[in-house]
Design goal:
The chain has one domain: Histidine-containing Protein, Chain: A (2-Layer Sandwich). Strands 1, 2, 3 and 4 form a four-stranded mixed sheet that branches. Strand 1 and strand 2 form a beta hairpin. The chain is built from three helices and four strands, in the order ααββαββ. It is 26% helix and 21% strand. The chain is α/β, with parallel strands linked by helices and 96 residues long.
Length: 96
């Protein structure tokens, strides 16, 4: 059985995995999450870009709940996708 499936990420008895790896595994469960992770003495700094404030908050909560995390600095930027950019613009015919 793989280590990550046999131990809960919130289990403080999971010293086999360093904090950075445990945070990365936790965030990998979010299909939208492609953020950078920096860990220093229990402080996790998240960076990168997501498409909504909800995704930013969920990423922070997933990181915060990992055993050993003392503080989360959420530097994730929200770049909302403008749905109008995905629709081709049709210009009316100009009368001759």
């Amino acid at each position: 059985m793989p280590l990550e499936s046999s131990l809960s990420l919130a289990d403080p008895r999971a010293p086999e995995l360093d904090l950075s790896t445990r945070v990365r595994l936790s965030l990998s469960r979010l299909d939208f999450c492609r953020v950078s992770i920096h860990v220093d003495a229990g402080t996790v700094t998240l960076g990168g870009t997501v498409s909504s404030f909800y995704q930013k908050q969920v990423s922070q909560e997933f990181a915060r709940r990992v055993a050993g995390v003392q503080r989360v600095i959420n530097d994730i930027q929200v770049r909302e996708i403008d749905a109008s950019l995905d629709v081709p613009h049709i210009h009316p015919a100009i009368p001759a």
